[in-house]
Amino acid sequence: MSVRPIVITGEPVLHRAAALVTDFDDELRTLVEDMYETNVAANGVGLAAPQIGVGLRVFIWKMANEDGVPEQGHVINPTVTTSKIPQERPNPDEETEGCLSVPGEAFPLKRADRAHVIGFDVDGNRVEFDATGWFARCMQHEYDHLNGTLYVDRLDDRQSKKARKAVKRNGWGKPGSSWHPGVDKDPFGHDEDEADEYADDLIG
Fold first, then answer.
1. I want to staple 61 with a disulfide (CB 3.0 to 4.6 A). Which of 1, 17, 46, 65 is the partner?
2. What's this model's pTM, rounded to 2 decimal places?
3. Do 57 and 49 touch, CB atoms closer than 8 A?
4. Would you name the residues annotated as active-site residues?
């Protein structure tokens, strides 16, 4: 197992749909284990394979929830369906989201309150569960990654403008940017004992 670098917005793999997994083999198991390790090192609650440069339909999570789902898990070739997304503006105090591939930034985004997840585990066994609240937000966020969408792509006009300025300010938006959890300084401040401040903002 190893911690892998996380690629940043502008890397092509983040902006195209990932491929279906066809081989449930040891290479896939290693990928999932590396994703777990990388997510923990990054203080994340979720991570999709494209975020470590692998264009496959795999995501993992490590997040306590009230839905009876294991705190840490993974899903291969998932389908995620949701309840209706409310149309009102997101509450910046309660609905601000972050992403390991847009490191150090956070913006409010409205998400559906419920998500239904269907897929497979590394052994090819069917996985199916319902997620609510922030766990549902995590599932939607990671599933978006598999379809080439980052959460900043879903922001309203005002927040989208702020996100574009942040991308430009950081020199992102083109291939070649990444950060290495456990090696580089944590962009969300977790290594400065600020974990509580960011815990609800950081997805994957």
1. 46
2. 0.93
3. yes
4. 142
